Each structure stands twice: as structure tokens, then as C-alpha cells.
Amino acid sequence: MTDTTTATPQDTHIDLTEQERAADLNIQELKRLVGLVDYDETKDPFPVTGWDAIVFVVGNATQAAQYYQNVWGMELVGYSGPENGNRDHKAFVLKSGSIRFVLKGAVMPDSPLIAHQAKHGDGVVDISLEVPDVDKCIAQAKAAGATVVQEPETVSDEFGSVRIGAIATYGETRHTLVQRTIDGETYAGPYLPGYVARTSTFVKRDGAPKRLFQALDHIVGNVELGKMDEWVAFYNRVMGFVNMAEFIGDDIATDYSALMSKVVANGNHRVKFPLNEPAIAKKKSQIDEYLEFYNGPGAQHLALATNDILNTVDALRAEGVEFLDTPDAYYDDPEMRERIGEVRVPIEELKKRKILVDRDEDGYLLQIFTKPLGDRPTVFFEIIERHGSLGFGKGNFKALFESIEREQDKRGNL
Ligand SMILES: [Fe+2]
To answer: For this protein, what does the record note about how its cofactor is bound (predicted)?
Structure first.
């Protein structure tokens, strides 16, 4: 049960991250937005503070950086590219609230990013996490049998130093671990050493919300049939993540396709990873479609937390973002109305925008899903507004998956 109204003395045990402070967020807001919980970091063998950055490899980072500013209301804050010595690729750093996206696109014809993009299409290459002690995490990762892809090293520039290391996770995805404070000194640059501050001439339209999302809630990983439990065990054993919820079998099956899903979270629940695998059904699972077009396991969707989903969705639609459709029957079903009870807005407002509602013993959540963001039917976004519920919309899975299947069918992949 999460109390979102009163502060307890324990609240002081969670510190805001640098990014949250810069975004003017507070602990109470974060408890409501992303279900942040109190926990004792000193007993954690692999303490994780929160997200550091989500790194995407894309076919055209220059244009994608504009898309995320113009459409998703993000702010350009940093850059690395040929102009400042990085001849291989361009990288744009964008922020919204406490979350940072880094978009990388190849410049050199022999850049390794080209092979990555050719194989996977646009996608998430690195779910980078902020940690208080990289060496402790890497030592734990090694002891627990994880693949270390980068040994801890300190990198510096005129803004100070960070210590980074990296471990491999599913597919060709990695977790770079970033320690931003070394011996009491916090790195003061726009992102990492090698990046320079950068702004753009883009100006938001009159009346546009200050930002469309405040934080990142969760990232779903799609893995192969039979591999979900292996990856749950990986996050338990290597990174000390805890299991949050479990959905199996009928919970998330439609007449045609099915999947299984389990959720792991870090100690303070800032970082939540639902892990999906396809389940056997009459037709091809949406997870199989992802695995085929992403060419292996990878990040499927990123859930962006907002405190005003109605305004966010209206703004995104006005910019041309397409969302999955929900039939009117979903909103008119008396059983569904009974189940969700009272929410902060009239159901008609949700119906108009095709926003889904789910309720559990802790509260409710509002959510909606975009269509795939790129050319391949792989990565997409969820917009989520939590009101106490720490779930992932289990009650909506059937309606949601039927909607996904309609799209899958249009693509000839069902
Ligand atoms: Fe989700």
C-alpha cells in the first residue's frame, strides 16, 4: 500500500538524484509517479540509484533529435560529434523531467553503429543505470557470473570525472553503470566526458505543456521462448533486483496469441523491468513478431510517467503521434466500469482519447500505448499516470493485445 499524501520520517532515506533535483521533482511526487519506495542501500550487493540514460542507436540521429524535441517535448542539452572530436558518430542528449535519452547515429561509413542499426533497426542499445559504486557492482556481477563488457574506468574532462563500467544483458543490450560522484566530487558536465552542452533554436508552441513526461517508469524486455525465467534469475542473482508481479497464461492470452511476463525492480523501484517471452497460442505472438524484426531480444517499450495523461496525449496527438486504438466497448462494459470505479476524470474523457484504466488493491493507473515508433514493428512508448497502483495494467492486457493483434494483422504478421 502506498500512501501518497503524507510524509513519514522514513521518506528522508531516499535521496533525489541529480537529474530529479534539476527537474524540480520531489520524493512525494516520485512515489506517486513511479512508485518509488524506501529501502536500505547498504545491504544491497549491487546498489542502483536509478536510470542514468537510455541510449538509442538510430538511422538518423540528427532528425530523431528534432522529433524528440518537436513531438515529445524533450529538451536538447548535450552533444558529441565530429565538431568536438568524435568522428565516428553524432550523439544528441535530450531531457524530459528526470530522464535522459541519448540518440546515436553513425557518421563514418565503417562505424559499428551501422551494423547495429542494420541488424536491429532503431532501438535501445544501452539501459544505463546510475550507481553509487561501480567497482562494487562490477565485482558483484563477476562473482554472480555476469558478462562484464567494460571494466570499471575513470573518464574525465574539464567538468570533472565519472567512473563507468558495463555488463551485458539480453540480446545486444547492455547496462552501462555510471558513478557520477567520486570522492565527494560530482561530475558537472552535460552528460559524460566528451559531450558538450548544446541547445537548439526550437521553441515550443504557445500553450504547450512545460514537459510531456516527468520520469521513466519501466522498460520492458522481450526475450526468447523459455528465456524469461533465466533473465528474471539474472536480475535477481546479479543485480539483487526483487520480483514485483507475475502474469502467466490466461492473464495475458487472447484467442490468438499469448505471452508470459514477470517483473523485476531495483531496491527503490525507480528501475522496473518487465520481461516478456512468447507463449504458445493459435497464431504468432506479438513477442515473436518483435524478436523476428528486432533480430533477437531487446527493449520493447518504455513507459513514460506523466502527471497529466490527458494533456500529454492531446499534445502528442496534435503532433501526429499515433496510439493503439481501443474499441468503445471497452469503456461501455459495465463490468469494467464496476472494476475501475471512480477515477480523477470522467470515463468519457478517457474514452475520447482511448486511454486505458486499471485498478488493483493499491489504487489505479491510466495508460495508453503508441504504435511502433520506427519502421520496424519493435520499439514503442507507453504513457502512464499512476494513482497508487504499482501494477503494469494487467487488467488491460487482453484489450491491449487484441488491439496489437489488429495492427499485427494489418502488417501481415499474425
Ligand atoms: Fe508497460
So the answer is: Binds 1 Fe cation per subunit.
